[in-house]
């Protein structure tokens, strides 16, 4: 993963979590919030693996 790809992933994670937080604060939160959190988690894990590879 390149530096630009890592920055893009980090921004995507931030956006997904912001969307999940906005949905959680909505009058009627639903299961889509969990889906967004799961997507952010998967991207964070991928980014973490890429950063670990760089640091080794």
Description:
The chain is built from two helices and no strands. The longest helix has 25 residues. The chain is 84% helix and 0% strand. The chain is elongated and about 45 Å long. The chain has 56 residues and is an all-alpha fold.
Describe this structure in a few short sentences.
The protein is built from 2 helices and no strands. The protein is mainly α and 56 residues long.
Key terms:
mainly alpha; 2 helices; 56 residues
SSE layout and pairing:
Blueprint (H helix, E strand, L loop, with lengths): L2 H22 L6 H25 L1
The whole-number mean of residue pLDDT values reads 84
Largest sheet: none
Annotation, overall tally of beta strands:
0
Distance between the termini: 14 Å
Shape: elongated
- SSE succession: HH
Unreliable residue runs: none
- Strand fraction band? under 5%
Quickly count the helices: 2
Compute the CA-based radius of gyration: 13 Å
